[in-house]
Amino acid sequence: MSQPKVAVIFYSATGTNHQLAQWAGEAAKVAGAAEVRIKKVQETAPQQAIDQNEDWKKYVAENKDFPKAELDDLEWADAIIFSTPTRYGNLPSQLQAFFDTTGGLWSSGKLANKIVSGMTSAANPHGGQEATLLSLYKTVMHWGSIIIAPGYTDPSLFEAGGNPYGTSVTADGNTPGDNIKKAVEHQVKRTVEMAGKFKS
Ligand SMILES: Cc1cc2nc3c(=O)[nH]c(=O)nc-3n(C[C@H](O)[C@H](O)[C@H](O)COP(=O)(O)O)c2cc1C
User: Which architecture, in CATH terms, is 5-199?
Assistant: First the structure.
């Protein structure tokens, strides 16, 4: 089995998905990835809007130099793990804006057969956790990429809310619990293993 290159691409306004992405990056290394990149998509909201939310303002200030996702990260990776909060059941415009720059990669077939898996968060258990991952996976299907959802392939899924579309968190401003970390680790291990099989 080949060792895949893994890109973890996330958007976060207040840190939850940043934490999921960090755990995913660590898990990808443990699972045998050849190389791992963890990148945040560009913040596009006006500073005036950010300043109105103390948590968002603090997060942006603390992470302004975090490496930014580029199209090359998508082309480079064998497996891509996305982590994104919900926005009314949809993707945040920041991640959508990044996706809206992928036309060239898509039309030249460079996103076909990538292995992709998604994680998400919402403030409420029924606030759009599945819907957001379905929104993500719609784009991924148009790319011709291969979705690796966790399903119910491990007991950790049941202890992390039981979302078979991808690990999801009911975000309350605190660091997600150890149950979520374990679900992330399983999802990433499965994704890296599948990517290795497709690559070989
Ligand atoms: C404009 C906006 C819309 C949101 N819509 C929802 C929603 O429909 N349901 C929900 O449960 N949470 C909603 N949220 C809460 C976010 O999903 C939550 O803050 C996020 O998951 C935290 O992730 P982060 O810390 O990585 O930014 C919304 C937040 C914003 C700013």
Answer: 3-Layer(aba) Sandwich (3.40)
